[in-house]
Amino acid sequence: MRSFIVAGNWKMNKTLEEGVALVRDVLARFDQPPPGPVVFAVPFPFLQAIGALVRERPGFYLAAQNCHHEEKGAYTGEVSADMLVSVGAQYVIVGHSERRQYFRESHEQLAKKVDLALSRGLTPIFCCGEPLSVRERGNHVPYVARQLRASLFHLPEADLSRLVIAYEPVWAIGTGKTATAAQAQEMHAALRSLLARRYSPEVAQAIPILYGGSCNAQNAPDLFQQPDVDGGLIGGASLKAEEFAAIIRAMRR
Ligand code: PGA
């Protein structure tokens, strides 16, 4: 059975001191390991410190929010997959809509990032999702399917099965407008059937598909009840310990 995952994406928020306090506060709320993996996707400068906190705690993991698509070299200001591994990251977010939009990351670059992350043993959390105009035209499923095809479908099945996918409708991110549980389920089921057709029903069943976009402690239980929603990628609500802990507790298994 695929795992249920909750990942907190801090984006460009918190100082190191605040971030350490937040993670300590979240961890203090759990005596037992969480029902499924909980991932903290923190800014690069915090990776080591947060990694040291979660390392001792079964069920809690460390992620970066991005990595460069080349292995190494003259890319001032960039961070490589090897660097992430060397500081203890286990996951990396790839293709968040903010990276696609503000940093013009292309399908090809994202494909390279996925390859590189997998080759280094990192689990990519591959983000996909449509803008509002696309949803209003009713083209959301083909649009997101194209994102998967363009950046993932070159992978052999054994590699694809090591991915996590996060469906994040762009119109729901940071806006307070969550997709309804039915909208999320529709997309997740469509993506799973696309994976089943391109690969196999087994691999499609094995891949966790997370929902992201204004997911919070109130709406998480409803979203997480959907049969094809396997957890969440949480932005704003992951910045508050009590709320993030409540979302973790809403995991189904
Ligand atoms: P949000 O962000 O929960 O603040 O909408 C989610 C994300 O962008 O990963």
Walkthrough of the structure:
42% of the residues lie in helices and 14% in strands. The protein has 253 residues and is of the alpha/beta class. The radius of gyration is 17 Å and the shape is globular. An eight-stranded parallel beta barrel has the order 1-2-3-4-5-6-7-8, surrounded by five helices. The chain is built from twelve helices and eight strands. It has one domain: Alpha-Beta Barrel (TIM Barrel). It binds 2-phosphoglycolic acid. 2-phosphoglycolic acid is lined by residues 9, 168, 173-174, 212-215, 233-237.
**Largest sheet composition:** 8 strands, parallel, barrel
Overall shape: it is globular
Which stretches are low in confidence, meaning pLDDT under 50 for 5 or more residues running?
none
CATH homology-level superfamily:
Aldolase class I
Write the layout of secondary structure elements.
Layout: E1 5-9, H1 16-28, E2 38-41, H2 47-55, E3 60-64, H3 81-86, E4 91-94, H4 97-102, H5 107-119, E5 123-128, H6 132-136, H7 140-152, H8 157-160, E6 164-167, H9 181-198, H10 201-206, E7 209-212, H11 220-224, E8 231-234, H12 241-249
Parallel strand pairs: 1-2, 1-8, 2-3, 3-4, 4-5, 5-6, 6-7, 7-8
Question: Briefly, what is this?
Answer:
The protein is an alpha/beta fold and 253 residues long.
